[in-house]
Amino acid sequence: MWRRRQGFLRPVVCGVEELRCRRREREAALRKARREQQLVSKRLLREDGPEETGGERVAAVLGEAEVHQFLRLAQRGTEEKEREQALVSLRRGLQHPETQQTFIRLEGSMRTLVGLLTSNQALLQLEAARCLHELSHSEQSTVAEACLPATSYLLTYLSGHSSDFIELCLYTLGNLIVESEAVRRQLLPQGIVPALAACIQSPHVAVLEALGYALSQLLQAKEAPEKIIPSILGSSLLQHILQLLQPGPKLNPGVAVEFAWCLHYIICSQVNNSLIISHGALSTLGLLLLDLAGAVQKIEDAGLELLACPVLRCLSNLLTEAAVEDMGGQLQLRDERVVAALFILLQFFLQKQPSLLPEGLWLLNNLTANSPSFCTSLLSLDLIEPLLQLLPVSNMVSLMVLTVLCNVAEKGSAYCQRLWPGPLLPSLLKMLACSDTEVVAQSLELLQLLFLYQPEAAQAFLQQSGLQALERHQEEAQLQDRAHALRQTALHG
């Protein structure tokens, strides 16, 4: 690193620790940004009839008189079929935001619907629940809050016997949870966490997927770290989540995706990641990573990236915890197998889903940052060249590839001897022509480490027109000190 003194530039010694510290500060900022990324969404369950799927029969917007009429028929009709059909007509009308607003403005409408939800006639209960589900899908928080009188009953029905009804209640609760803090404030004392914990033992895959969705919505609430996650960690949910992520014949991809995101949100809260590590999360996730790598080699396109993304994020974030070292967390991951699996996934992402490359590289960065053994695996498996082939993908990918290479180089002379000679220097020369300042800065940092531990590389750099590549950065404020320092190092050793 360089700084200006008395009107001229002079070198200042920049040690490995300072380089490492700079990178860790950048990574901490990136981790914070990644933790704040959320996947808030709503889901809608509808029958497969043409009127539900946008076919020929499109439900009409209902006026106040029609809403009142359907509610009255559903409540007081002389035949059960007539009552059920009235609720079906109301439900179809509630697909429209205008009808939803009409419904919540109509006095006594929600009280009537809750009465039908709690009736002793199963078909009326189901249609009433479907009406609530349509309301829960509204983007207006006022509609969600109008459903508050029904939440305690929805929770109660989670302990019922009908898996279809439980699934519907879970998706409805998940939609309501994400829309309104008032709903969450009511659900917590009503016992939503114990109710969800009881559901996780269901043998029905559809119920487990719905549960994972509802739980993930709850975990994304802004108050989750203080008011929700401690209760979840104090329940049996964590152990069951990890069991559902265990690779093997019982692993269901849809269920695993939902609960991998749940685990991701719990880890990002940083409430008690030591507890998560102590339950063997690193081992479970590492084995799941190996399983995914094996699967992508056998299956052409099975949507595996949906599971790979949260698994990679969980592993990456756990590896930043101090408890990993204290509990021997690195030993839970087998070095060469994990690195090999990760590169299989990187190749898969490159071909199928390039947007996920940074996720895999972020994990590789965290694996190699403080672990000479993972750096050794990277070298012994001859993975430097495949890593360099990712440089042209994007500036973000370039930056992360260069950061991983810096992790390797900073481990010392023995590691730099494996980096050079080889394709590294030509690749870095190309990176110095990049327009992205961060990419160039990281390239200069890697060259600085390489010259420090492998002086012969500096001569090769000079022979390959390295000075000309540096000259374009001599006048750039953010890079001129580093570029000048590297030039001096290359010329004078």
UniProtKB/TrEMBL annotation:
Residue spans crossing the bilayer: none
Keywords: Membrane, Transmembrane
Annotated SUPFAM superfamilies: ARM repeat
InterPro entries in UniProt: ARM-like, ARM-type_fold, Armadillo
Taxonomy, superkingdom: Eukaryota
Annotated protein name in UniProt: Transmembrane and coiled-coil domain-containing protein 6
Organism of this sequence: Tupaia chinensis
Record lineage: Eukaryota, Metazoa, Chordata, Craniata, Vertebrata
